[in-house]
Design a protein that fits this description.
The protein starts with a strand and ends in a 19-residue tail after the last helix. With 355 residues, it is of the alpha/beta class. Helix 10 (298-307) links the parallel strand 9 and strand 10 (313-314). The chain has helices at residues 36-40, 47-68, 88-105, 114-120, 174-184, 191-199, 223-236, 245-251, 254-283, 298-307, 324-336, and strands at 2-7, 12-21, 24-34, 78-84, 109-113, 142-147, 152-159, 162-167, 287-291, 313-314. The longest helix has 30 residues, at 254-283. The strands form 2 sheets. A 5-stranded mixed beta sheet has the order 3-2-1-4-5, sandwiched between helices. A 5-stranded mixed beta sheet has the order 8-7-6-9-10, sandwiched between helices. The chain is built from 11 helices and 10 strands. The protein is globular, with a radius of gyration of 20 Å. Helix content is 41%, strand content 19%. Bound molecules: 5'-O-[(R)-(carboxyoxy)(hydroxy)phosphoryl]adenosine and zinc ion. 5'-O-[(R)-(carboxyoxy)(hydroxy)phosphoryl]adenosine is lined by residues 10, 148-150, 175, 178-179, 190-193, 196, 292-294, 296-297, 321-322.
């Protein structure tokens, strides 16, 4: 069964073709066009710019994914598209394109939950050279940690689509905190990779940043950490909390910036490892999947390997941030498990969709 996956929930336009058989998922193509460069000057995603870019990119990206996979429409068995969560204008472009293609070519259509799809990226077992894929799909029961720009969630899966949400963030997602810390430190968007890179040059123990206390055991909270970074930076340059955050970076020394980045990176990761470890002990899963944009972090991978009693399953670094392959992978299991198809005349976006 060959699935075309389409992703357009934020600032990446993605399309990919995947073939699924029992126990195996093979990636044939994975094309991504990002508008991140256009958002960089604003320090975050500008929804109107993202939506406009999707309109420009979506047809060429899908065509490229089909060409790379050496497919024509006769080879495609179903179309999967992100229906939410995400930015409305961005989601609309992907969903309307997928609906049109499904009607035009008479294909089944599946609207996919983007957060769930991040986990399914870890089920891709075979692909072109250059991908670091696990040769075997994760086993159930499975514990999944999704860490992205919009989500920080621990989920326990008894089986495909049979899950319970153990905890989520009550405010900012961890990726969002990276992006905001980067802005304070004057580092480019997206903040995750730039904070992580600078953190490698810094002393993680020079400053002590707080770990948030959460009401529920597996809950997360990252907005306090972001504020702590701002207050620390203001104090380091001899200013009080009234000093504007956009001027802080200009006053910090290179050493101060690197040490703050290192302190932030350490605490952000420690919280994720601690909670995942606790959940592992309570639920004793057969596998632990770590996915989403922040899971590309080499330091997070290292600390998870040290902290967990079993080897965690990481998504290939190229499949951690948003892409069409994860949507196609989730689409395959949706079809295989005979979950309901969506009506191509009616499928709507769901910007606030949760797990
Ligand atoms: O999964 P994703 O592409 O989009 C959402 O669904 O939100 O995740 C994007 C997030 C951004 O916040 C970005 O800063 C973060 O992932 N990120 C990283 C790294 N690469 C991307 N965070 C930490 N370390 C990285 N290497
Ligand atoms: Zn995502």
């Amino acid at each position: 069964m060959k699935i075309l996956g389409i992703e357009s929930s934020c600032d990446e336009t993605g399309a990919a073709v995947i073939e699924g058989t029992v126990g195996k998922l093979k990636l044939f193509s994975n094309v991504i066009a990002s508008s991140a460069d256009l958002h960089r000057q604003y320090g975050g995603v500008v929804p109107e710019i993202a939506a406009r870019s999707h309109i420009e990119f979506i047809n060429p990206v899908i065509k490229q994914a089909m060409d790379d996979a050496r497919c024509d429409w006769d080879d495609i068995d179903a179309i999967a598209v992100t229906k939410g969560p995400g930015l409305s204008g961005s989601l609309l472009v992907g969903v309307l394109t997928a609906r049109t293609l499904a009607i035009l070519h008479g294909k089944p259509l599946y609207g996919i939950n983007h957060v769930l799809a991040h986990i399914y990226a870890a089920f891709i077992t075979d692909g072109p050279d250059g991908y670091e894929l696990e040769p075997k799909a994760p086993e159930f029961p499975m514990l999944a940690l999704i860490v992205s720009g919009g989500h920080t969630q621990l989920v326990y899966f008894k089986d495909h689509f049979k899950y319970s949400l153990l905890g989520t963030t009550t405010d900012d997602a961890v990726g969002e905190a990276y992006d905001k810390a980067a802005k304070i430190l004057g580092l480019p968007y997206p903040g995750g990779p730039s904070v992580e890179k600078l953190a490698r040059k810094g002393d993680p123990d020079r400053y002590s940043l707080p770990k948030a206390k959460t009401a529920s055991m597996y809950g997360f909270s990252y907005s306090g950490l972001k504020t702590a970074v701002l207050r620390l930076a203001q104090a380091e340059i001899g200013q009080d909390y009234n000093f504007p955050s956009h001027k802080v970076a200009g006053e910090l020394s290179a050493r101060q910036k690197a040490d703050i980045a290192a302190g932030f990176n350490k605490v952000a990761i420690e919280v994720l490892v601690d909670k995942t470890k606790q959940a592992f002990e309570e639920y004793a899963p057969k596998s632990v999947v770590i996915s989403g944009g922040v899971s590309a972090s080499p330091e997070l991978r290292k600390q998870m390997k040290i902290g967990l009693p079993i080897k965690p399953v990481f998504t290939d670094p190229k499949l951690c941030t948003d892409n069409g392959a994860m949507i196609a992978a989730a689409g395959f299991f949706t079809a295989q498990k005979k979950m309901p198809q969506d009506n191509p005349e009616e499928l709507d976006i769901a910007p606030g969709l949760s797990l």
